[in-house]
Each structure stands twice: as C-alpha cells, then as structure tokens.
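Quick question, first post here. What does this chain look like in 3D?
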Amino acid sequence: MSRVVAGLAALLLTAALPRVGRAQAPARTSGGPALLPFLGSGGFPRPRDIESGATDAGQMLAGVALDVPVAPQFLVATTVARGFQPFACPSCAPPGSLANIAILWSPGAHSAKWGLRLGPSVERTTFDGTRTGVGGTLALGARRGFGPLLTLRYHTLSGSRRPTSLAGFLAFRLGR
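> Answer (accepted):
Ran it through. Tokens below.
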C-alpha cells in the first residue's frame, strides 16, 4: 500500500511541477532592447561667426536612441540625431548631426523600473567639420517598459580649439 501511495505522490508531483513553474512570472533582471525617440538641445562647436566671433552655438536636436542590454546592470546605448535651428537667421549656425555610443551602468536594484544610468561615451559630430570626442552620459528615468528618460551628455571634441559639447534630451522609452 505504501508503494502505491508513494507512486501516486511521485506522479502527482511530476504532473504538477510544470504547471507551478508556468504560473510563476519569470524574474526579469533587466529590460529588453528599447527604442527611444527624443527631442533636445545642445551647445556644439561651429565655424567662427564673423560678426560675434562665437565658436559654439545652440542647436535643437531630434533623433532616436537604441538601448541594448548586455548584462543585468549594463547596456549599450547608441544615438543618432540631427541638429537644426528652429528659426532661420543670417548668423545662425549651420545644421549638423551627431552619433554617439555609450556603455551605461545602472546602479541599484536590477529589476527597478525607474533609475539612474551613467557611463563613458564616444561622440562624433558634424556641426563644425567632423569632430570626435570622449565624455560621459547621465540618464535618469525609465529603465524598463514605457516611460520618459532625461539624458545629459558632455564631451570634449577633437580639433585645435578643443571645444566641448553639452546636450540634453527628453526621450520616451518604448520597450520591454
């Protein structure tokens, strides 16, 4: 009799375990890839203005970023954007573009929906010829799912004047 009870218990456990496993939500330690359309502004190098002598100018930015997780607390963020002046003027800086890649670390809980990300980044701009530089990225906002994300980037760019760029974006994260 005890063999029959043990056999039935083993059969019941074998049949029930897959159902219990499916009923539990899988523990996600990081979000999946995400697309982030954004608008922002930044200060970038520009050809020297004859009238004012200015060597940098503000630009409005429109672009998209792609975040790809590579580990529970790390992701690779790539960004492309186009800079433009919202109003035409004779002494305005010419339009340009930027491309950026960053490796961002997310301190705090792995599964947090909101939080901070920071890390080094490399940027290439075309606002005053082609310039490349290194710097840092800081982002605060949605880490998983849907939500807003505010990003700040500071870079020291190549060139004889050693100019810098500072940009800020407000993006909306579209991902898991």
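Confidence is low (pLDDT under 50) at residues 1-6, 8-13, 16-29.
The two ends are 52 Å apart (CA to CA).
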